[in-house]
Amino acid sequence: MAAIQKKDYSMEEFETRYQEITKLYDYAEELVATVESPLVNDAQKQLDIVEPLISEIGDATDILTREFLYIAEGKKYKTQSKASKAHIEGALRKIFAALNDYSAHVRDVSKKAHGSIMNIADPIVKKIQEQVEQVVIIFLEFIHISLQSIMGKMELEALKVRDSRVALMMHQHALAQQQQG
After folding, report:
1. How many CB atoms are located within 10 Å of the residue 131 CB?
2. pLDDT in tens, 31-56
3. Which of 58, 76, 97, 175 has the most CB atoms in a 10 Å sphere around its CB?
4. Position 1 in a domain
5. Cα(8)–Cα(85) distance, rounded to whole angstroms?
6. Structural domains of the chain, count
7. Rounded to whole angstroms, how far apart are CA atoms 104 and 39?
């Protein structure tokens, strides 16, 4: 796993990136609080829609935080990281799949209601999507992960447009692999 940059990160920089990853837990909790709000007519129905997403976020974030700690420990002691590219990619893929499943479920519910209704959880799910993209960028800083295997082509292209660092990091990874091969 070749690092993109030869930068030495401070403990504060590692802590900041770690906190960015753990924000996913906060958003999952916010999702639960939103659907359990007294303003929601049928909290159980709403919970049924978001529960799979909440579960996947929790499980994946557990993996991502553990793997990030391996990366940080390896960088701190200048040793080979014990982080698993496959575990990181799998965790990110699970979150993206859960986000897509959530969107599909909301569309289905909306069709059955004969209209375009917005789910109460949609604004928080959007924040989760944006945060997951930030987490992807954090991991790209340290290891080569295959974004094509994590997210769909449209999602990847949109991410490249929103954050030009992604295209640059992908290019740097490709160059590093060519030099190794």
Report:
1. 18
2. 999 888 887 788 888 888 899 999 99
3. 97
4. no
5. 21
6. 1
7. 24
- pLDDT attached to residue 159: 85
Name 120's Cβ contacts closer than 8 Å, sequence gap at least 6. Answer: 34, 35, 37, 39, 40, 46
Query: Within a domain: residue 50?
Result: yes
**Alpha carbon distances (Å) from 74 to 26, 70, 87, 143, 160:** 27, 6, 17, 12, 28
The amino acid at 88: I
Q: How many residues does the chain have?
A: 181
Report CA torsion sign: 17, 19, 21, 27.
Answer: negative
Say if 56 falls within a structural domain.
yes
Non-local (6+) Cβ contacts of 40 within 8 A are 34, 46, 120
3 in any annotated domain = no
pTM (2 d.p.): 0.85
Phi, psi for residue 45 in degrees, rounded to 5: -65, -45
Domain that holds residue 110: 11-180
More confident residue, 5 or 100: 100
What is the mean pLDDT of the segment spanning 95-104? 94
